[in-house]
Amino acid sequence: MEESPADLAASEFSCLYAENSRAIYYLALRFLGDPQKAEDATHDVFLKAFRKLDQFRGEASLRTWLYRIAINHCQNLRQGWHDRHVFSNADDAVWENTAARTDSPLRVLEIKELGQRIQKTLDGLPDEYRLLLLLVADEELSYEQVGALVGQSPDAVRGKLHRARKTFAALFEKTA
Amino acid sequence: MKQQTKLSEEQQSRQVGTEQQTQQSAARDFTNAEEMLRYDAAHTTVPPGIAQRLQKSTGDLPGPKTAWWKRLFGGTQP
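The joint structure predicted for all components is written out below.
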């Protein structure tokens, strides 16, 4: 028996979800810092994607398209409580000047402490750095694609990534 | 009976001790932030509730007017 177009769309959507849900959930989780909010956001992002699938023009990869929806969604959510969570750019300079062993490996002793320390570190980063690191961590994205998502050139992404890594490492050591 | 229970508790305790040791000895070094985030992402479980909620939410909606795969593959394959 042939599948109806609706069934077909549903099964293709299932594949889309299976292939991308971890990436989107992880971005939402670490960007928002709250598992319940991340769960709601992931649901909303995929629902939005389902509604707009026929508008997808194939100019970007599906992963990039989903990330764009997720970033907009998470940034809107954060808008209201931005001030409570993030250090200002002025604080950023303090972290960058911290005498941290940023060229040494980042070490964790227990796997379970990792998530908590990462979250604490990301919470202390400026939004721009946090998003950049989360996107660059996805090996499926090129610097060009990351650049397109954050509105920067690939060269600018590379430059900022260097600063983001340094700040992350300095902050991470302080969470020990 | 009590002895059996105690034995079982001791066994459990030993087991937990071994698990803790294994966890503690699993120290990991990461060369940069992305590597650490990649590892963290790989060990993050997507809550199954999301898929269930989505199934419910999308079930009430009409499917996309044009199948997205037709746009991608020109209608040559589903």
